Amino acid sequence: MSGLLEIRNLSKSFDATKVINDFSMEVVEGTICCLVGPNGAGKTTTMDLITGRIKPTSGKVFFANDDITAKHEHLIARAGIGRKFQVPAVLRDMSVQQNLEVAFSRQTNPFRNLFKFRKAGLKDKLDEVATLAGLTGRLKERAGILSHGETQWLEIGMVLMQEPRLLLMDEPIAGMTEGEAEKTAQIFKDLRKSATLLVVEHDMGFVREIADVVVVMHMGSLLAQGTIQQIEADRRVRDVYLGEQEAA
Amino acid sequence: MGNLYYNKTAQWAVYVVFFAALGVVPLMVSDSFLLNQFATYGVYGMLALSLSLCWGFGGILNLGQGIAFGLGAYGMAMTMQMQSQTESNPIPPFMLNNSLESLPMLWQPFQSTTLGLILAVAAPTLFCAVFGGIMFRARVSGPFFAIMTLAMLSAFYTIILDRQAYTGGVNGLTPPGSFQFGDFEIDPYSPAAYWVVFGFLMGATFLTKLITQSSFGLVTQAIRDDAERVRFLGYSVAGYETVIYTISGLIAAVAGCCWVMLVQYVSPAQMDVSFSLSIVIWAAIGGRHSLLGSILGAFIIQGAQSYLGDTFLATWLLILGGFFIVVVRFLPNGLASLVEKAFGLFERRDPTSSPAPDGGRPLPAE
Ligand SMILES: Nc1ncnc2c1ncn2[C@@H]1O[C@H](COP(=O)(O)OP(=O)(O)OP(=O)(O)O)[C@@H](O)[C@H]1O
Ligand SMILES: [Mg+2]
To answer: Where is each ABC transporter domain found (chain A) (predicted)?
Structure first.
């Protein structure tokens, strides 16, 4: 079976520096894949390339067997890819509830939305996600005043509101307490029933907890791929990444 | 209960009161010249409203709103001009002076009033859709878009000035008769003309208000907040920006038609940079985030200009400029924010209200 997401021989250079170098990987439907690697390995850049934020120098990205390479961001999102950014990006001047409502984007056509005042299914979904994200009591608050942890939760909530087939999560538990991280792990594992996840995370405890497959990136290339046990036993990974983590 | 300023029911109630007040004006004013003047304020109000939608609500600063207004005005003037031409006298006098022997292609559709009216509104709207579409797709935004609209406005101004045989050049067009709609003649000094403008202003205001409260409005607000983020939610930012810019242009075009109906005159001055800038000033002083504030801004500034402008002939622009600077400096969200602040004080004294109950800064259109 081929993957829901397939990255083939992707390369990206900024001026003369090669940031992604002939990188290939795939994510199988219904699994959680963790993408790890040292700072500057190119993990966020890979997500930028998947979501159309930047265009690759060469190589291709396939989603559900469609070539989505360098398509516009909104078309890739509509195809079913939702993304949480490394630096949490929420709509700061709008209320928490409005953030979640905008993210509920089943209808994206501007003309259809012109005189639409009630979105079918919004209320149930909003209640469900707000409860899951622990934001029920904060719905009327302006998103800009939330704490870092709450902002993380709001953005995760926004991705859930989008109901994507593939969720890209860039460092989702940064700034969360241990309890919150545990809760996030549970949510992600539950999501696996209906969706697929690609998670970038430095916290190896979290990765161990959720990952079906771990992909290690180093200097823009694939270093290793396998189960968490295989990765932790891998000599090269210990040298470039995990060793450095233990020292830190 | 929150700040009453943001209460949707209260907002609609204020709108109803506002239009009821405008509605009784013709019953109180017997001077037909004054009534005609009030009707032109209604046109300026429509323009301020259109800019409030585009700039205040959509976050797209448009320094060339005169394009849609002017094209609408020219379309209407051409229609009215052709209404006064007869079989024996089929082409407008200024064309004869410019040695044109037959009616140019450009003018032919305006022989039909229906077609003329449709074109007067459709042409500027289509222009906005195409120009906006190209600009927003290329992700031109902020000050760069504002400069492009200014450049476009100057281009139109130059063309209209230059193509004298088709446009009347610097003299513009002065249709000799009032507008005929079917069997009705709409005398610009009659209450009927006032009612037409009143109807369009009210219709446009309610339409705009509904748009700001719809799902479309929510997405537009999100785009103003962080356009880059909104793309990743699946919305075409360019699409939404184009639609809002085009609707704004449509309202301005209708305003242009109404204006010519009232004054029976159009010239390149309506596409002059200073006129488009004054639309921006109305909205800025009234409060661009508030539809009603912007309309009132136009009323106040134009009203003051009519009455004080004669007294302070030379210094009027200085007074206006000074006022503008004071408002921008001390009330960046215009006079409407005074009302917001007043209600805010009221709310703080209300012990039952919870802190920041309305998410701080929700729907900004009043
Ligand atoms: N726009 C850009 N121009 C030039 N270099 C860039 C640009 N964006 C990223 N880079 C470089 O690409 C490399 C990979 O960056 P990326 O953000 O993808 O790393 P990462 O794996 O996400 O790291 P971290 O774990 O710190 O988030 C870095 O060396 C970075 O400096
Ligand atoms: Mg990163």
So the answer is: 5-244
